Amino acid sequence: MILVTGGCGFIGSAFILGWLDGSDEPVVNLDLLTYAGHPGNLQGVAGNPRYHFVHGDIGDQELLGRLLETHQPRAIVNFAAESHVDRSISGPMAFAQTNVVGTLKMLETVNAWWRDRPAREKSDFRFLHVSTDEVFGSLAPDAAAFSESHRYEPNSPYSASKAASDHFVRAWHHTFGLPTLTTNCSNNYGPRQFPEKLIPLIIHNALLGKPLPVYGDGLQVRDWLHVDDHCSALRAVLERGRPGESYNIGGRSERTNLEVVRAICSALDALRPRADGAPYAQLVTHVKDRPGHDRRYAIDDSKIAGELGWKPAVGFEAGIRGTVEWYLGHQDWVDSVTSGAYREWVGQQYAAL
Ligand code: NAD
């Protein structure tokens, strides 16, 4: 049995769906169901006897202690987090609470349970912490991509909170011997991503004929990875990664934000042409840049490729097209997550529009 946290979010739900598809091993999903968590993401496994949902906070030590005693997981995969940079600028406390304090409380609880396990179970156990490349800060255009030994230089409250959690995870390995693994992954895209993030936001606005907001000059560079590729990398790290190590995960797909938006517009032009025949790219609107916006992230994936034999399988253009198709076919999902609270938040965010 494995315990997944934050499994009702974008990446966690893809991980659970893939897990139950490819393995007989049961999954317990602990999720607080914040605005970003949707049980509907896991509708496909709702009746599956190998799937068990628990509503709760990773920082609830009593609840987590009970879950560990009851289910005796052989591994934990920690996705639970506040994950949106813009929200971390307007409300950083929630990020400190879940990403830092929540992870720390988990480590304490897990370690207290793990240290009394029989020797074999102790050595086989894994705590996999899912983190981001944003902890490394911003790269110059010609600088070498982030390797695992790159200095931590987080620039946003989000990345600062994830960096802190990574350090605690590392410390629990070095101080207490807990068999931890950390992954630092680039930007994900794919089905079921909450439409506050760039790619689903652009698809959503384009279909409504609304402006497509691009921060500043739109030349910020990110590496993009399909969520299914991220999940296959996580499975590889969980099964074959060395305890105490961290692994960078990337898509070998560096693109400027403007290129990403244009790729979405082209896919939409082909799949759902506008009534007046005008290209979606006409809706692109440059808005005031995000404060402290990192210029470039890029991943050196030679460690995970060399040690674990993992590489991404989904090409960027095909992945974007498939993602656009998914959103076109799941308008009911979009409607169910873009509630009044979502509209209020987007309204505040892009008030200038
Ligand atoms: P998400 O915001 O879509 O989902 C987060 C999930 O965590 C939600 O289901 C939410 O309800 C749950 N959650 C939040 N606080 C919780 C708490 N205190 N206790 C229990 N559950 C809680 O996030 P995502 O995009 O799926 O990201 C998952 C993880 O991957 C995060 O740790 C994030 O930092 C990391 N990551 C994300 C990306 C990306 O591009 N999205 C890239 C690299 C790493």
UniProtKB/TrEMBL annotation:
Keyword Transport (UniProt): no
Keyword set, alphabetical order: Lyase, NAD
Tagged with keyword Lyase: yes
Entry's Gene Ontology BP terms: nucleotide-sugar metabolic process
InterPro entries linked to this entry: dTDP_Gluc_deHydtase, NAD(P)-bd_dom, NAD(P)-bd_dom_sf, Sc_DH/Rdtase_CS
MF (Gene Ontology): dTDP-glucose 4,6-dehydratase activity
Enzyme Commission number(s) of this protein: 4.2.1.46
Highest taxon listed in the record's lineage: Bacteria
Record-annotated NAD(P)-binding domain positions: 3-321
Species per Swiss-Prot/TrEMBL record: Caenimonas aquaedulcis
Known catalytic reactions: dTDP-alpha-D-glucose = dTDP-4-dehydro-6-deoxy-alpha-D-glucose + H2O
Identification of the protein by name: dTDP-glucose 4,6-dehydratase
Matches recorded under CDD domains: dTDP_GD_SDR_e
Protein family: Belongs to the NAD(P)-dependent epimerase/dehydratase family. dTDP-glucose dehydratase subfamily.
Classification via NCBIfam families: dTDP_gluc_dehyt
Cofactor: NAD(+)
